[in-house]
Design a protein that fits this description.
This protein is an all-alpha fold and about 140 residues long. The protein has helices at about 5-65, 75-95, 105-130; strands at about 95, 100. A two-stranded antiparallel sheet has the order 1-2. A hairpin with a 2-residue loop joins strand 1 (about 95) and strand 2. Helix 1 runs antiparallel to helix 2 and helix 2 packs antiparallel against helix 3 (about 105-130). The longest helix is centred in the first third of the chain and has 65 residues, at about 5-65. The chain is rod-shaped, with a radius of gyration of 29 Å.
Length: about 140
């Protein structure tokens, strides 16, 4: 084997290795982009779920302020309850800020349970608001 044939073979191998690395990099970039796009939906779901928890805590806080006869507490309870209701509908439908989330069966089951607790909580809050002028607060 001469030096020229060895050099040609070496160039072919280097050419193949170089384009293989480029090809693998492109595949890696595509897979990485795809995984990040999947996680974007997850992060929005987690943010909305965290806000749901915050809304329930805020409503509880304002209910306590109603008992202490603070101004605007009842108005704030109603406002937060309405925001929570809108967010709950978004969470159940899977349409969050323009992104459609595909829920698996386990998440759908958990959301149905969450919705049950939401309606129980909402019912109790509305009951307290109706009774705020009765013996409950005096």
């Amino acid at each position: 084997m001469t030096f020229k044939t060895s050099l040609k073979k070496f160039k072919k191998v280097n050419f193949f290795v170089f384009f293989s690395i480029i090809f693998l990099f492109i595949i890696y970039w595509y897979i990485n982009s795809y995984m990040i796009s999947l996680q974007e939906g997850d992060s929005r779901l987690i943010n909305v779920s965290g806000k749901q928890r915050m809304y329930s805590q805020r409503i509880t806080k304002y209910i306590l302020l109603i008992f202490r006869k603070k101004e605007n507490a009842e108005k704030e309870v109603k406002r937060v309850l309405n925001v929570w209701q809108r967010r709950n509908k978004q969470l159940l439908s899977g349409q969050i800020n323009g992104i459609h989330l595909n829920y698996d069966a386990q998440i759908k089951t958990e959301l149905a349970l969450l919705n049950k607790f939401y309606f129980q909580f909402r019912f109790q809050v509305l009951r307290i608001l109706k009774k705020k002028d009765s013996k409950l607060i005096k």
